[in-house]
Write a structure and sequence with these properties.
mainly alpha
Length: 94
């Protein structure tokens, strides 16, 4: 099952809001991506940036669980949303 791009962007925006509200995790995101707090505001509607937010969050299962639990979403939803955003396509190496 795949998500429509608009739905995926909306979901990723929720992930960004969750991340911004997480005082422990936000500095890790900013440090690892090189993004600034201004970037968060300016690029919040950029599908590529939102994909990066989901990529970051999916680096740790505990982050995925915490976010999904906070919005009552299935744990595979971040992966489905990521697949619908630019750069999230599945690559077949065969």
């Amino acid at each position: 099952m795949s998500l429509a791009r608009e739905s995926a962007e909306s979901f990723a925006l929720q992930a960004l809001a969750w991340l911004v509200g997480n005082d422990d995790l936000l500095p890790v995101f900013l440090g690892s991506t090189g993004a600034s707090e201004d970037d968060l505001k300016q690029r919040a509607t950029d599908p590529v940036f939102l994909g990066a937010v989901l990529d970051f969050m999916m680096m740790d299962d505990a982050w995925v669980v915490a976010f999904c639990d906070s919005i009552d979403a299935a744990y595979d939803r971040p992966m489905m949303a990521r697949a619908a955003l630019p750069g999230g396509e599945q690559v077949s190496w065969t």
